[in-house]
Design goal:
CATH topology: Rossmann fold
Number of strands: 4
Shape: globular
Helix content: 55-70%
Radius of gyration: 19 Å
CATH class: Alpha Beta
Distance between the termini: 56 Å
Strand content: 5-15%
CATH architecture: 3-Layer(aba) Sandwich
Number of helices: 13
Order of helices and strands: HEHEHEHHEHHHHHHHH
Strand order of the largest sheet: 3-2-1-4
Length: 263
């Protein structure tokens, strides 16, 4: 991959889209992870204002530190970079305090994780509305179109997706080209929705490199029966998540009423 050319292409696409949409800039949630770091840097390179939101909800300290370090790096290297911290922890705590208790612990934890993501989406659109900005999404191709590893109407609720056609490995290549902080590049990917250091691989059961391999095998027409051992295991993980999360990747189903019933 030609990182320089890809960066130029994405930046040009972002700038063109913003100009045609007649917006004033971009707003993005900075998590301390590789995807938001790369996306915010690409937005910054357009020359449009970029509002970086840091939205902790019982966040691990190392994630917060990486987020602030990255925003500082952006402000040092680009103009029109603003920082806004919104501590959503008390909002989250107040919200779950009024919810009824759930019996299924696993479903409760997943619901609370998704609630965190949706609170952040609401916050991003609050500031987007105030400033006339676009909400920039941070999902990559594996997450958005492979296993659906995002929250519907949470981090999946965005206006534009600059890196959604990049595999995770390609995001890392772009990060190195852009000069993203090494602590972010080396950090294990995490969605930061659990209040601990649980990584994406811990949740999924497979690394992004493994998931990329499966995506390529699927594109080649391979089936799970073509493999065995670890390869068969990760193929099964991929297919299971892809099918379960397909509803996130397709348009909302619409009940289309036959014309004869309306006349």
């Amino acid at each position: 991959m030609n990182a320089e050319k890809v960066v130029e292409y994405i930046v040009s696409w972002l700038k063109d889209y913003a100009e045609k949409s007649k917006v004033n800039g971009f707003v993005i949630g900075i998590s301390g992870g590789i995807d938001s770091a790369v996306t915010s840097a690409l937005c910054a390179k357009t020359g449009f204002p970029v509002l970086c939101l840091e939205m902790p909800i019982h966040q691990a300290e190392n994630q917060i530190t990486r987020a602030y370090n990255h925003i500082g790096w952006l402000q040092k290297n680009f103009k029109k970079i603003a920082l806004q911290q919104v501590n959503l922890t008390p909002v989250f705590d107040s919200l779950i305090a009024v919810f009824p208790k759930a019996e299924n612990e696993e479903q409760l934890l997943m619901s609370l994780a998704n609630t965190r993501a949706r609170l952040r989406m609401t916050t991003l659109y609050y500031f987007a509305g105030l400033n006339g900005y676009l909400v920039a999404g941070t999902g990559n191709k594996v997450e958005d179109f492979g296993i659906g590893f995002f929250t519907k109407y949470g981090d999946g609720g965005v206006d534009i997706s600059p890196i959604a056609d990049l595999m995770k490995s390609e995001v890392y290549k772009i990060a190195k080209y852009l000069g993203i902080n090494e602590d972010i590049i080396k950090a294990a990917p995490t969605d930061g929705l659990w209040g601990d250091n649980k990584t994406d691989e811990d949740q999924i059961g497979a690394s992004y490199d493994e998931l990329e391999w499966v995506m390529k095998q699927v594109e080649l027409g391979k089936k799970i029966t073509d493999f065995e051992g670890r390869e068969k295991d990760i193929f099964e993980i991929y297919i299971k998540r892809n099918l379960a999360n397909r509803h996130k990747m397709i348009p909302i189903p619409i009940c289309e009423i036959p014309k004869e019933l309306k006349n």
